[in-house]
Each structure stands twice: as structure tokens, then as C-alpha cells.
Specification:
about 300 residues, mainly alpha, about 75% helix, globular
Length: about 300
């Protein structure tokens, strides 16, 4: 009976983790849609400033609980700075791209993040990947090129913003994994401070008056993003990452749905084809990584992957 109870409890925890991940992804999608709506009327810098203030409504109690001085007790300050810089570029470039492109288009670039992470982890984290996953990485890159549209449109600034933002996103995650001994509150707080400072700089000369609804929307942007981060962080502590990681692709589905409902955007054939290739390549990479980590050593092929 005790064994059955333990299995049932484990199953409940995993299901809770799955639900939290799905809810966190939905909140991120709502955050992205709200951001697109706001940057259509306000400068990216102004949105970053108020969004960061909103984030501190959630982060404030967490900072007080761990003690403000804990923010300064961090390992490898140089790498911490690089991570914060990449995370800030990720947010700023996302808003810059989504101001001009449909939500689904920008999200397609960001869905290539796991593919970039697989390649970057090989060089920066020493996580060896074999020829099958390298092939999946190359196929994923091909999906990105298709989504970019192989024409002069590839050189458009919004598309390049989306591509550069997705690379910054992947680099920030790789750095976060490398600095995993640093507390979540500390990591998120420093990147929020950096976003606030960047927003102040970018908003000089571009600050606009706004209605109460607009100010509330910008504050809510930070609150929603922080809650999404917390939900996903908690989900990863309740369920295996190999189970949760593929659920990130629901962001693309939400981007298509919300883009249509709020902005009347319908993805074209190239975006859908490119997104499908990226998702399949990403899922294959997750599958191979999970297989490598769960099968007995003697059953692993000589190439390791």
C-alpha cells in the first residue's frame, strides 16, 4: 500500500509539474501578445522601464526573504555580467522585432532556441553531442532559414532582430545552466535591473504620456513575466526536464492563436513549414538526449549518441 501511495504521489507531482509548465507557457504567450500591443504605441525603452518596475512587485518580497546582500554574493562575476547582458538583449530585441512582425513569426525564431542550446552546450558546457544531433541542429537551422524567407526579406531589420534575440536567449540559458548554483531570485533580479537601466537609456527623448490602462498594461507585463518564470522554475523541480522541455513548443501554438485573435495575423506557408521543421528537429534533439541519459551504458552505440 505504501509503495502504491508513493507511486501515486510521484505521479501527482509530475502531473502538477506538467500543468505548471503549460500555465507558465500560456502566461509567457500572453506576455508576448501584451508586449506586441504596447510597443505598437510606445517606445521599447519605455515599455522596458515600466515592465521592470512591475517585475519588482513580484521580486521584492523574494529579495527581502533571501536578504538584499545575497544579490552581491555571486560566483564568477564576469560570466554573470555576460548572462545579464544576453538576457537584456533577448528582451529588447524581442520587443523590437514583434513591433513590426507577426507574433508567430518572431516566436518561430525563438523556438529554435533549444537547437542553438544543443550546439552551444557542446562548446561551452562540454556536453558532447553525436552526429545524429548535429544533423538535427543543421536541419533546425534550415527551418530557421526557411522561416526567414530566402530573399531580400532575410536582411530586414525586424527579422534580424528576431534572429539575434533568439541567439541571445539561447546564450542566456546556457549561461544560466553554467551558473546554476546561483539562486533564481538573484539571477532574475540582476537581469531585471539591467532591463530597467537599458530601458531608461533607450527611452531618453522617446517617453510618451499614457493612459491609466496603458500604465497598468506595462506594469502587468512585468508581473505576468515574473509569474511565468516562477511557474516554470517550480515545474522543473516537480517533473523531469525531458518531459517538460517539449511542452515549450506550445508557445508557438499560443502565438498563432493569440496573433490571430488580437492582431488578425495568419502565418504564411513558409513560416508554418519553417516552424514545423524547427519543432521536429528540436523534439528529436530532446529525444536523443533523453535516450542517452536513460539507457544503460552498454546499450549506447559507439558514437555515444
Amino acid at each position: 500500500m505504501t509503495t502504491k501511495t508513493g507511486v501515486a504521489n510521484a505521479g501527482n507531482l509530475i502531473m502538477t509539474g506538467v500543468l505548471l509548465m503549460l500555465l507558465g507557457d500560456l502566461l509567457f504567450a500572453l506576455n508576448d501578445a501584451m508586449g506586441k500591443w504596447l510597443v505598437a504605441s510606445f517606445a521599447v525603452g519605455q515599455v522596458l522601464v515600466i515592465r521592470s518596475i512591475g517585475a519588482f512587485i513580484v521580486l521584492g518580497p523574494m529579495i527581502l526573504r533571501q536578504g538584499p546582500m545575497a544579490l552581491f554574493r555571486v560566483e564568477q562575476k564576469g560570466l554573470q555580467f555576460i548572462r545579464v547582458f544576453m538576457a537584456t538583449c533577448d528582451v529588447a530585441l524581442f520587443y523590437a522585432a514583434v513591433a513590426y512582425l507577426p507574433l508567430a513569426d518572431v516566436m518561430t525564431f525563438y523556438m529554435a532556441g533549444p537547437i542553438y542550446i544543443a550546439a552551444l552546450s557542446h562548446f561551452f558546457l562540454g556536453e558532447k553531442i553525436g552526429w545524429r544531433r548535429w544533423l538535427a541542429v543543421l536541419i533546425g537551422f534550415a527551418g530557421v532559414v526557411i522561416a526567414l524567407r530566402p530573399s531580400m526579406a532575410m536582411l530586414s531589420l525586424p527579422s534580424l532582430f528576431g534572429l539575434a534575440g533568439s541567439l541571445a536567449f539561447a546564450l542566456s540559458l546556457v549561461m544560466s545552466r553554467y551558473l546554476r548554483s546561483t539562486g533564481d531570485t538573484t539571477l532574475v533580479t540582476w537581469q531585471t535591473i539591467a532591463a530597467l537601466v537599458t530601458g531608461i537609456v533607450l527611452s531618453v527623448g522617446h517617453w510618451q504620456s499614457a493612459t491609466l490602462i496603458d500604465w497598468s498594461g506595462m506594469l502587468l507585463l512585468g508581473i505576468v513575466a515574473s509569474c511565468a518564470h516562477l511557474l516554470i522554475t517550480r515545474s522543473l523541480k516537480l517533473a523531469p526536464a525531458s518531459l517538460l522541455a517539449p511542452l515549450q513548443y506550445t508557445l508557438l501554438l499560443w502565438a498563432i492563436v493569440l496573433g490571430y485573435l488580437f492582431f488578425n495575423d495568419i502565418p504564411d506557408a513558409q513560416i508554418i513549414i519553417g516552424a514545423a521543421i524547427i519543432v521536429v528537429a528540436g523534439l528529436f534533439i530532446f529525444h536523443r538526449k533523453n535516450l542517452k541519459e536513460t539507457v544503460p551504458v552498454e546499450a549506447v552505440p559507439p558514437d555515444g549518441h
